[in-house]
Each structure stands twice: as structure tokens, then as C-alpha cells.
Design a protein that fits this description.
Strand order of the largest sheet: 1-2
Distance between the termini: 41 Å
Low-confidence stretches: none
Shape: globular
Helix content: 40-55%
Largest sheet: 2 strands, antiparallel
Mean pLDDT: 85
Number of strands: 2
Radius of gyration: 15 Å
Order of helices and strands: EEHHHH
């Protein structure tokens, strides 16, 4: 995020300075988590983002999913109003939809063995 004359501006994932390793992403910064997952999805594919969510406890999938849903709604409203998207916006919209699909499916954090983790009990 950066401050602009009209308020806070959200950076595109290509423009943000992000940690190079998933373990260095802040547990308390959902926006950084989202941008990191977008960047990884663009570079390596959404399946790699899923692997990161399964392996690293510092990511909060439920919170990320809620933010993605809001951003997708915003893009959809713009699309319905016939707003032209830039190439970056089109790319981000597609990545966000793919991440939303992945997050909507149940996945289990690796290393967890409680029945609750599998939706049992």
C-alpha cells in the first residue's frame, strides 16, 4: 500500500516489495500474504500457492479468502459497468479467481493429525 493524493492506493503484486521466502511473510499482514500468493501463483501456478498454505502456519487462508472475495466483487462491478481493465488488472483478476477456487476447496495443513483437521468430529 502507498499513500496517494486520493487516499491509500493498493499496489499490484508486481510492484510490491515482498519477502523472497514464504516463512518471512508476516503473519499479521494479510495484505502481504495475499500479494505473496498472487506473485507465487503468477510465477509458479496456483498449485504452488496451495502448497505454501499447507506448509506454512504464518498464512491465514480464511482471511485471505475473504479479502479475495471482496476484490473479485469490486472487479466484477467494474466489469459490469463496462470499465476497461489494463493488462495488469486482467491478469490479477484471473489470478484472484484461481486463488478463490483453490481456497474454496478443503485442504489440510501438513503435519496436522487431529480429526478436526479432516472435518470429522
Amino acid at each position: 500500500m502507498k499513500r496517494g493524493k486520493d487516499g491509500i492506493i493498493l499496489l499490484h503484486f508486481d510492484e510490491a516489495k515482498l519477502p523472497s521466502k514464504p516463512e518471512d511473510v508476516s503473519r499479521d499482514n494479510i495484505y502481504q500474504q495475499l500479494l505473496y500468493l498472487e506473485k507465487i501463483s503468477a510465477e509458479e501456478g496456483v498449485s504452488y500457492a496451495k502448497t505454501i498454505l499447507e506448509r506454512y502456519e504464518n498464512f491465514k487462508p480464511a482471511d485471505i479468502e475473504r479479502i479475495i472475495s471482496l476484490i473479485i466483487k469490486s472487479y466484477s462491478i467494474k466489469q459490469n459497468k463496462k470499465v476497461k481493465f489494463s493488462a495488469k488488472e486482467k491478469r490479477e483478476f484471473e489470478i484472484l479467481k484461481s486463488l478463490q477456487d483453490m481456497l474454496g476447496k478443503r485442504f489440510v495443513k501438513r503435519g496436522l493429525t487431529r480429526l478436526d483437521d479432516f472435518g470429522v468430529g
